Amino acid sequence: MNYGRHKKMKTVLFRAVCLSLVMLIAFLLLDARVRPMIRNTAIVQAQSYAALAAGQNIPDILRQTGISYESMVDIQRDANGNIVSIQTNAIQLNALKSQINSSIAASLSGLSGKELGIPIGSLTGLALLNGRGPKISAIISITGSAQTNFINSFDEAGINQTRHQIFLKTTVNLLVVFPTKTLSTAYTYTTLAAETIIIGKVPAFFAGITQK
Description:
The strands form 2 sheets. A 4-stranded antiparallel sheet has the order 3-4-5-6. The protein has a two-stranded antiparallel sheet with strand order 1-2. By secondary structure, the chain is α+β, with helices and mostly antiparallel strands. It starts with a helix and ends in a 13-residue tail after the last strand. It contains 3 helices and 6 strands, in the order ααββαββββ. Helix 1 runs antiparallel to helix 3 (90-108). It is 41% helix and 36% strand.
């Protein structure tokens, strides 16, 4: 009787160990499948938040400040009316950059404890099941900072005429924080801030100007 009971216990124990191993392998395989999808989804989500923050804040700031080409650029001419220099208003442009960077950072400051959900059907790789079924959840936090630069573009607009365009290029650097890992990504937003047609020959050198 003792031998039979001992043999039965060994069989139960063996089955339990095998079941545990199968469950562990299944968990590892599922984790290997889920983790990259969660990371990719988190990166896309972070970039969408950055796009929303830049797309809303930058046009609003440009409208509120009422900034114009004349307030951003000073064109100097000689006694004959020839252009001798084009200078940017560094103080105003730096203030505008600072306002944009601060506004975007503030918009991204509350993105902690965000929940992402990956439908189980998406893990199968089958098109018919993509986006279907219960969701596997993951909690992430997103932080970001912005860096804004001005880019100048000069194009011929006619005889002795030059179109000068000033673009705002804002790069939002993002950190996506997981419980065990931190990922980095970036989003770039470019918009036209001001433009004008310059009449007269434009000199090759412009003080304070970085050309596109």
